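During the reporting period, we have paired protein sequences with backbone structure tokens. One record among many follows, to show the layout:
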Amino acid sequence: MTARSEVPRAGGVVTKVDAWLDERIGHRKLLREMLDEPIPGGARWAYVFGSALTIVFSLQLVTGLLLMTVYAPSASTAWASVHFISHRLAGGWIIRGLHHFGSQAMVVLLGAHLLQVALYGAYKRPREMNWFLGLALLAVTLGFSLTGYLLPWDQKGYWATRVATNIAGTTPVLGAWIQQLMQGGPEYGSLTLTRFYSLHVGLLPLALVALVGAHIALFRKHGVTPGAGADLKKVDLFYPRQVWKDLAATLVVALVMFLLALRDHGAPLDSPADPASD
């Protein structure tokens, strides 16, 4: 009489699948390199901003892709599509709200991250290039804010963007050319919206992903810069202590974003843009 075969336990199946994948892609080594990063001076709350920024950007990417499935980028349809998202589409208001307040969270988190880097002296040799990459990330993030502000094609976004393009037009020598480049021509209308939309969903995300990748690579090369007074004899690994701090901070940021979106039932939407009013 043959022995009855046992049903494999879930843990055993997961282990086998994990081993099968590791043999082919080597993810265990990559995870070890990521999670075993030493932190001189120990884990700190001051280090949470980079991870929180990465998670918020990922959330922006997901909510932005969802909004793209409904948004219609033209002067005659943009406002109506945003109104539909906010008031008619099931769950549309919370998606738009999270995207709206997520963009503000990115600016705040990036400002806090740059301040922490400056206070800890992490911009000094040999980390100068990473500081410059951080400034470039700030410029790209502000670019997201500028281009995204116009996309609802409401009065507030329309006139604020007109002011911004007019300011750009005052640049010496190249001002008129820069303004026409931003507007998509001599007039302000559908071509302007299309150009801003293309920047917002095409060029700027690619630039941000490239900059973040380079930033993380240089950070891994040089490591964490301990703050003044840190006990250098104390060394934590990134996992678990810093990971849990990063996750806690990210959850707080996400909760604040959700509560703000809940309070405003999404994001503000002014009346449709009217070029004849001022």
